[in-house]
Design goal:
With 481 residues, the chain is of the alpha/beta class. It has two domains: 308 residues, TIM Barrel; 115 residues, Golgi alpha-mannosidase II (Immunoglobulin-like), CATH 2.60.40. It contains eleven helices and 24 strands. Strands 3, 4, 5, 8, 9, 10, 11, 12 and 13 form a nine-stranded parallel β-sheet that branches. A six-stranded antiparallel β-sheet has the order 14-18-19-24-21-22, with helices on one face. β3, α2 and β4 form a beta-alpha-beta unit. The chain is globular, with a radius of gyration of 23 Å. The two termini are 40 Å apart.
Amino acid sequence: MKKGRFFPYLLIGILCCAGGLGAMETVPVQKAEFHFQAKRTPLPPLRFKGKPFFPLGVFDHEPAGALHTGALEEEFLASGGNILKAGNICHSADAEWKINAEKELSVVLELSRKDPRYREIALLVEFDNDFIMGPAGADAPPDVKWVPRTGADLEASLAEFAGKIRKISRYPNVLGYLLDEPENTVNPWFSRMCRAPWKKGGDAGVADAVVRLYGVLTPIFRKEHPGALRMPIIAWWSAYRHTAELYDVLVPDEYPKDVNGKEFASDLFNVNYDAAMAVTAARNSGGGRSVIYMPACFDNCSGGYHYNTLREQLYVNFAPITRGAMGIFAWRLDRASDFHRKAVVYPAMREVHALKEFLLGEWCDELVASDHDTATADYLKRFRERSPMVAHVAGGSLQKVENPVPDVSHCLRRHPDGRYCLIAVNNRREPLDVRFKVNTPRPPRDLVDNINKSDRLHVSRRDGGTFTVHFEPFGVHAYVW
């Protein structure tokens, strides 16, 4: 962790109490015009050991300073953690540090059989891109590090991969397999050495190449580990629709860049746009596909990324849920200090965990509307062509998008006992006063914010199910009634 990183958290609390952030002008309530959306098809929940569950966890899981031991951090369990990355499977020609990661996998797999704390924790196994992409030769352009394996080399690699999957399939806690951003591995080769199809197809062409190359792994999964989920981490939102053949569960990731270390200055709304693109792609592709979202949870990572405060972590956890994501799987715990885990990561996890029964409940989004369901800020209407998450791929130009991020996004979930929960996030950097209207069979009367229990609203009968909510910048509310 960078020196002094904890001071912004303390300063923010002082400013809030003293009214130091109050100078920001609140966007006033608009004239109430409510447009209720049509009923949306829910994404299916993931299932673990035969039961639906809402994945909540982290990439890596061990206590700070105890990496590669398989140890479970008690606060992870206490915060509702139920899914984690167990380790990597690596090509036999891989570097030594990745071989060590595979040794870690063996330790965690055995613990999942012996340690009762693992009993209800789903395990994800990451496999490396180099089962498909091998090192480039000396004659390749300098920026092309990987090229597709072919012929006998590919056959041997696939046979090795199948053997590893076969062994892992013996462990019932293994839910599925991760693959880290294959489009970023394929793109340098495809864009430099397949220039004609790259120029013609652009991002879709790169995605199609990924599907053609990595599609040979699907029959191996189906044969060697039936029922396991293919869960690639895809970075480019422009690739979600075109890579659908490769995933049962899409894992999009987005980590906004830092802006002077200031709270709320980063483009956190990119997370909302990213999640919406992923959910739309999974829904439209059919086949029972789903989405779990991967927000940032680190405070020690190169690349100029923003380190979230608690309020920002709540936003990046809940914004994807308002767009339909069916789980949160944050990246990555071994780059989070002990302080950041306790002050930010785990408190934000606990707030999601507290609502897990609602999050698995009936979708009732068509029963709620607000007067800020469209984008009024220009920065919510323009996004880059892609968000590559690596330095060697450009994000492209800002473009006006077909489906901008609304000022406020929200979802309504019904608990099996009949209660409702309205989860809503402010996607703007400015405070907002927002008017909601709810058409539930049981009208809201007394609403309690599950995140801030002191935030209570009373809705009188004459209000007809309408009420006003104040949002801080990127604020989050979860009202239950």
